[in-house]
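Thread amino acids onto this structure.
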C-alpha cells in the first residue's frame, strides 16, 4: 500500500469543478468523443475563473480508452481549451480510478511545490470504445500491404479466412481481467457469495440508487453538471440512465448476466456503460491568494491498495481503512461517503467486510471490525448503478460531488473510494472549506 498526499507538504485546495451529464451508451457510438466531453466540461469551468487557461502549470486527465485521434488526451483537451502550447499535459490510466489518480498526481505536484494551479480530472466515452482487428487479420493485412504485384496479391488473397474478420470488442476485453480470466461482473458474483449478498439486497440497493438520483434531479442538487450540446442542436442536461418506473418485482424478472445459472448480478444492479467527463481545479495556497480564489475544499489524504483480482470489488474497504487508521478516525467522524457503484453487490460487500471482525483482522490488519457505514450518508444522490460509470471519469466525479454535498449540508469531512479492475482500491479523504 502507498499513501497519497499525507504528510507530503503544502496544502492542496480544490477550487471548483464541473462535469458533463453522463449519457448511457445505446449500442452505437454516442454523440461525443472523449475529448469533446472533456472540453465541454472544461469550457464553462474555465470561463468563470479569474485567471487565464494559460496560467495552469499542467493538465492531468484520467482516461482508459481514448480514441485513435486522442493520443495523450490530456494534451488534446488542454490545447482545445486554450491553455496554450506552454502548459504541459499528461494522461494517466488506473482503470476505474483513473480520474482519482489524476487528482492524486496533481495533489502530489502541488504539495511538493512543483505546481500551483492544475486542471485535473477524468473522461471516458465508453460508447466509442474501439473495435479491434484480431491478430490473424493484422498479420494478413501486413502481408497484403507487402504484396507488390498482381500475383503476390492473389497469393495473399488466397490466404484470407472468414475467421480473420472476427472482431475484438475492446469494451468487453477491457472489462475482463486478463490474469484471472474473469469479467468484472464475475468478480462481483464472487464477493456476493463470500458475504451472502442476496439478489433481493442487490435489487433493493439498485432501486434506491435510482430513487436518490431522481430526487437529486428534481431538487436541483446536481449543480456541477454543465449542459452538453451536439452538432445537431440537441441539448443534454441530465444523467439519462435514470429509471423512474422501477420496482422490485420488475427487477426480480431480469436474468443474471455473468453467471446465468447461479448468479444474482444483473444489468439493473450493475453500473451503466456511459460517456462522461469531470474536471476539477486544484491550487496551492499561493495560487488561492494570488487570484483570490474561493475554496470548495481540501485533499487531506489518499490511499491505493492491492488485493486479489478475483475479489477486486472489495478494493474500497482496503483503501479506506489505512486512511482511517492513519488519521485516527472513527466511522462517525466521516460526514458523507461516496463508494463508486460498480455493482450493487460490490458496495454491499464492502460494507459487510468492514462489519466483519475476521475479515478486518485477516485482510486489513486491524484489531477488529471497522464498523458500519450509515447508508443514509452513503451515495446520497445515487451512484454508478443509476447515473453510470464512465471508467476514466468516475474517480473525479465522486470527489467533486462529495465536496458539493459537504458544502450544501454545511458538514466537514468526506471519503470517496472506488474498486479498480485488476484487484486494487483507491480512496481520497477530503474536507470542505479552506480550514
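Threaded sequence (435 positions):
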Amino acid at each position: 500500500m502507498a499513501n497519497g498526499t499525507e504528510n507530503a507538504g503544502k496544502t492542496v485546495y480544490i477550487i471548483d469543478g464541473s462535469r458533463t451529464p453522463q449519457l448511457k451508451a445505446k449500442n452505437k457510438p454516442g454523440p461525443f468523443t472523449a475529448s469533446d466531453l472533456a472540453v465541454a466540461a472544461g469550457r464553462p469551468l474555465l470561463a468563470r475563473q479569474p485567471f487565464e487557461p494559460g496560467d495552469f502549470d499542467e493538465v492531468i486527465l484520467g482516461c482508459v480508452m481514448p480514441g485513435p485521434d486522442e493520443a495523450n488526451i490530456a494534451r488534446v483537451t488542454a490545447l482545445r481549451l486554450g491553455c496554450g502550447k506552454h502548459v504541459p499535459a499528461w494522461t494517466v490510466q488506473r482503470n476505474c480510478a483513473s480520474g482519482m489518480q489524476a487528482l492524486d498526481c496533481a495533489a502530489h505536484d502541488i504539495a511538493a511545490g512543483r505546481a500551483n494551479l492544475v486542471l485535473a480530472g477524468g473522461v471516458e466515452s465508453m460508447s466509442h470504445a474501439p473495435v479491434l482487428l484480431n491478430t490473424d487479420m493484422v498479420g494478413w493485412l501486413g502481408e497484403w500491404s507487402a504484396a507488390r504485384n498482381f500475383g503476390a496479391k492473389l497469393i495473399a488473397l488466397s490466404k484470407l479466412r472468414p475467421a480473420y474478420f472476427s472482431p475484438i470488442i475492446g469494451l468487453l476485453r477491457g472489462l475482463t481481467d486478463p490474469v484471472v480470466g474473469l469479467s468484472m461482473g464475475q468478480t462481483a458474483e464472487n464477493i456476493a457469495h463470500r458475504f451472502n449478498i442476496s439478489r433481493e439486497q442487490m435489487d433493493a440497493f439498485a432501486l434506491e440508487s435510482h430513487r436518490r438520483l431522481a430526487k437529486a434531479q428534481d431538487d436541483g442538487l446536481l449543480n456541477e453538471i454543465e449542459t452538453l450540446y451536439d452538432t445537431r442542436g440537441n441539448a443534454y442536461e441530465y444523467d439519462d440512465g435514470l429509471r423512474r418506473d422501477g420496482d422490485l418485482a420488475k427487477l426480480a424478472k431480469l436474468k443474471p448476466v455473468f453467471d446465468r445459472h447461479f448468479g444474482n448480478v444483473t444489468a439493473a444492479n450493475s453500473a451503466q456503460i456511459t460517456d462522461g467527463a469531470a474536471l476539477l481545479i486544484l491550487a496551492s495556497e499561493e495560487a488561492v491568494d494570488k487570484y483570490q480564489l474561493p475554496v470548495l475544499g481540501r485533499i487531506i489524504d489518499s490511499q491505493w491498495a492491492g488485493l486479489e483480482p478475483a475479489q477486486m470489488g472489495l478494493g474500497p474497504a482496503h483503501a479506506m481503512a489505512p486512511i482511517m487508521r492513519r488519521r485516527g478516525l472513527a466511522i462517525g467522524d466521516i460526514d458523507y461517503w461516496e463508494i463508486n457503484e460498480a455493482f450493487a453487490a460490490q458496495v454491499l460487500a464492502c460494507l459487510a467486510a468492514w462489519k466483519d471482525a475476521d475479515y478486518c483482522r485477516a485482510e486489513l490488519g486491524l484489531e477488529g471490525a471497522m464498523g458500519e457505514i450509515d447508508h443514509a450518508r452513503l451515495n446520497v444522490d445515487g451512484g454508478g448503478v443509476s447515473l453510470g460509470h464512465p471508467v476514466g471519469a468516475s474517480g473525479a466525479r465522486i470527489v467533486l460531488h462529495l465536496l458539493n454535498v459537504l458544502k450544501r449540508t454545511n458538514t466537514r469531512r468526506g471519503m470517496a473510494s472506488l474498486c479498480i479492475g485488476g484487484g486494487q482500491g483507491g480512496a481520497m479523504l477530503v474536507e470542505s472549506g479552506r480550514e
